[in-house]
Amino acid sequence: MTTTRPSASTPRGDALVPALPPGRTISLGISRIAYETRIYFRSGDQVFFTFLFPVVMLAIFSTAFSAVGKVGAAPDGSGGISQAAYYLPGMIAAGILLSGVQNLATDIATEKSDGTLKRLGGSPLPVFSYFLGKMGQVFVTSILQIALLLLVAHFAFDVALPTEPDKWLTFAWIYLLSIVTSAVLGIALSSLPRSGKSATAVVIPIVLVLQFISGVYLSFTMLPTWLQNVASIFPLKWIAQGMRSVFLPETFAAQEQNGVWDLGWVALILAVWCVLGLVLCRVTFRWIRRQ
What we know:
By secondary structure, the chain is an all-alpha fold. The chain has helices at residues 22-42, 44-64, 83-113, 116-121, 127-157, 165-189, 199-213, 225-231, 235-247, 263-284, and strands at residues 9-12, 15-18.
């Protein structure tokens, strides 16, 4: 005969919420992935400014600069790649940042402000299940976004995608490390806005500035050296550089800050920011906002 062991209790504010078995915790998290994804696609402004925005920007840059000619072409006009091919890796990197940092920072700040997190904090929902739902939603929407970017680039702008398996293997590890890093940083940044109404005013300028100084909209080597050094502190510069190593010809590595792709540094900087983001999440996250 077996006896049922009483589950432990987890304190949340003034209440003790019984801890759930690990299997139940994971199943709740998986069910919240579907819930969070449905809520995400029902919000029109969120879909445009985080999901469709990189696709729109790719179309704008590819069309607006098409008259300039190919990037990296020889003096006689031969060689080089199209503007769409040149901007594709930057738009993928921007999409990862928007899906993780901007999406989660504004979403969680709003939920904290309107009382949603307070209600969840008083329920048996484990913190792990909540964040599994959030990060799962980021992963699903980001994959769909990248697939849409690749389809638009290939079929609308005739961009040739990589055919070498090692290129896609590089893409896989850079993407996974980048999306996890962006997600945890978005969760950490959600504690910065003082209210849900101010979340976009706080988060969007940060994200926008990072895009302009990290080689997404402008060639990184166009920036002054001091600004390149500043951008190198933050993860977006390394995400964009890693994606360029996948989608651009090897000759374009000479245009990077050190003249090479520096994939080892890409992995190291993103890993450091991922750990830092996890620490900040642990220190700053609360079900209710402290006054």
